[in-house]
Amino acid sequence: MQIRPVLETDYPGVQALHRSVGWPQRSMAGWRWLHANPARLEIDAPAGWVAEGADGALGAHVGNLVQRFRLGEQVLHGATGFSIIVSPAARGASRDLINNFVQQPNIFAAWTFNANPRSQPLYARHGMQAWPEETNALKLAWPVAPLVLAAGRLLRAAHAAVPAIAPHLGEWLMNDRLGRVPRLKLPPGVTVLTDLGDQSAYADFWRALNAEGGLLSDRSPAALRWRLSDPDLTLPPLILAFRRGRDITGYAQAMMAKGNIIEPPVLEIIDLQALADDAEAIPALMTALIAAARPMGAAKVRLQTTSRQGLARLGPHAASARHEGGWGHCHARFSPDAPDPALWSPTPWDGDYAVCLRPLPLTPPGRSRARTGMRATASKA
Question: Of 47, 66, 119, 286, which sees the most CB atoms within 10 A?
Answer without folding.
Answer: 286
